Amino acid sequence: MSVSASVTHEIPFHDIDIMEIVWHGHYFKYFEMARTKLMQKFELDWTQLRDLGYAMPIIDCNAKYRQSTPYGTLINIEAKVSEFEYPSLDIDYKISSPLQEIHVTGKTRQIYLEIETLKPSFNVPEEILTRFQMGFKNE
Hints:
By secondary structure, this protein is α+β, with helices and mostly antiparallel strands.
């Protein structure tokens, strides 16, 4: 079982390069858009995490570019939890066009960090684990 979220986005002029396709670095911004929506499902958006005393910095990210994305294309950005237990949160991404053509796939890995000490937590904090478990149960 997995939990996912998706957002749609039309490629704006300021995201394209001289070839009139999305500059490769912007795909990570698109991943963030879908990841934010996904974390909101678990009631673990940034402000909620901060209020619990934790941050979840990305320690690894990658993207595989399968097809260029031209200006004006309407894309669907999907984020799906692939792992949330010790020691990290792993999220898989897929960016596709309305015809289900896959443009980019990717993955991020985040760790659980105590804000007060700036030290990683080697166990999933109980409050965060409970929210993930409830999110999976409700999906």
